[in-house]
Write a structure and sequence with these properties.
Distance between the termini: 48 Å
Strand content: 15-25%
CATH architecture: Alpha-Beta Complex
Helix content: 25-40%
CATH superfamily: Spore Coat Polysaccharide Biosynthesis Protein SpsA, Chain A
Order of helices and strands: EHHEHEHEEHEEEHEHHEEHHHEEE
Strand order of the largest sheet: 3-2-1-4-9-6-10-12
Number of helices: 11
Radius of gyration: 19 Å
Structural class: alpha/beta
CATH class: Alpha Beta
Largest sheet: 8 strands, mixed
Shape: globular
Number of domains: 1
């Protein structure tokens, strides 16, 4: 596949219908923008893409999808894998945008994608990771019903065989603890693969600054969003992180160093809150909900709603 003079790979744009004709079964209409940064990911890219475009809400044509794939100029068969899927996708509610050009790493690619989003709800998922089949439906329901702006689900880990091997419901993601860097060092990190936010919050992100991160660009995004919103939690499988050799996430010390460079120093009060939250993370789900009832949504089988 030969890039154009501007560094873009062949792009097939499938225009989606007017949002006024789209509904996911509630009173609101929705379209989503999902970004996948990738580089030499031929082994994993198909599973990631299929998890996005085959999500139930998209397959039933109850929402539209803008899918932006930002490839860093792969030298393997990644681009051909992507183009094969684009060429065989027959859903007019999906708009693909494929960019292939040399970049300065994953967060440079992500910043390019974020500049192009048009959907009301956005997220990004890296090659190798993948969403649950009903992730978008759950997210859309909670965003509409509760006016949520920023949402995460179970912390999920897959092994290199795509098997789900661990699952944990977060207790609380307190803004002050994000802003002093205690998430990850003291409390579990926000799982990027399970996190969605309203696109209006992107105004808080300095995309030029994001593009310069090597390791903790995700934390910079959460830090930016925490200045204007709070992170809600749903007791549901939305997405997950695949562990395999050679990942950026293995460079944990460099990751923490970048976090330290953008966060304030933690105070004694921060550690008190963090200690309380750490206990909360160990509790069963029903107690997490009891102690954090306004920010955790659990499914009620009688009402058949997340509440």
């Amino acid at each position: 596949m030969t890039p154009s003079l501007y560094g873009y790979a062949r792009i097939r744009i499938i225009h989606y219908p007017s949002l006024s004709r789209l509904s996911y079964g509630t009173s609101q209409m929705v379209n989503l923008s999902i970004i996948t940064p990738c580089y030499n990911a031929e082994r994993y890219i198909k599973e990631t893409i299929h998890s996005v475009i085959n999500n139930n809400l998209i397959q039933e044509k109850k929402a539209s999808l803008q899918y932006i794939i930002c490839d860093g100029g792969s030298s393997d068969n990644t681009l051909q894998c992507i183009q094969d899927i684009i060429d065989t996708t027959k859903n007019d509610n999906i708009e693909f945008q494929l960019i292939s050009e040399k970049d300065n790493g994953m967060y440079d690619a992500l910043s390019k994608g974020l500049r192009k989003i048009s959907g009301e709800i956005c997220a990004y998922i890296n090659a190798g990771d993948f969403y649950s089949p009903y992730a978008f439906e759950i997210v859309a329901e909670i965003f509409e019903k509760y006016s949520v702006k920023w949402l995460t689900g179970f912390n999920i880990t897959y092994n290199d065989k795509s098997q789900l091997v661990s699952c944990r419901l977060p207790f609380k993601h307190r803004n002050r603890l994000i802003q002093c860097g205690l998430h990850g060092k003291f409390i579990q990190l926000i799982q990027q693969e399970s996190t969605f936010w309203h696109s209006s919050l992107c105004d808080a992100i300095d995309l030029d600054r994001l593009s310069k991160f090597n390791y903790a660009g995700d934390y910079y995004v959460w830090l930016s969003l925490s200045n204007i919103s709070h992170l809600s939690i749903v007791e549901a499988w939305l997405g997950g992180f695949r562990k395999h050799p050679g990942q950026l996430s293995e460079n944990i010390n460099e990751y923490y160093q970048e976090i330290d460079s953008i966060t304030r120093r933690a105070t004694s009060l921060d550690y008190i809150y963090a200690s309380y939250d750490l206990i909360g993370w160990q509790l069963p789900s029903k107690f997490k909900k009891l102690l954090n009832k306004n920010e955790i949504y659990r499914y009620n089988h009688q009402s058949q709603l997340f509440e």
